[in-house]
Amino acid sequence: MELLENPLVKPLLENTHGLKRARREQALKILGAALHAVEPGAAIRNILNYDSTNQKLLVANRSYDLQQYERIYIIGAGKAGWPMAAALADILGERLTQGIVNVKQGHGPEAGKATGRIEIIEARHPIPDEAGVEGAAKMVKLLQGVGERDLVLAVISGGGSASGSQCSAGAWSGPDTRRPTSAASSRDRAR
Question: Which helix (DSSP H) or strand (DSSP E) does residue 92 occupy?
């Protein structure tokens, strides 16, 4: 959906005419283009290219011959983990073996949307929780089975250190892991 068609944006254009409306529409088009450019899935599609005929995956300037790999995995953590993993899954298609991605609660796929071969685990942020720990443990278990003929692609975004952590409240016998995170969050909110 284009930004100008968004029902939340339409009121910005009400009761404006002529040059004022044209400038506002132009500003909204620029904003829409900027938002599209930084959309995580679009960013992945811009940096990755897959030639299915030759089975070559080009990531930035590095080429991977996928004929050399038996299995391809995606792991990841962070608020943008789902759209990045979904873009990778679309690009790789049937070549994708499996994926496990931890995302912030509420940042997973829309209800009822299929995730294909990618398991999405919603976890707390900024304070780690058991769901994040369990998801990280699943990733570690998956990685322990990886061999020389496997390719692992990682998608990590903001919030990945909390949602992909193997430490949660009570997981340490030492100082409470939540205290530094809570203090940093409180400090950041005060700014």
Answer: helix 81-92
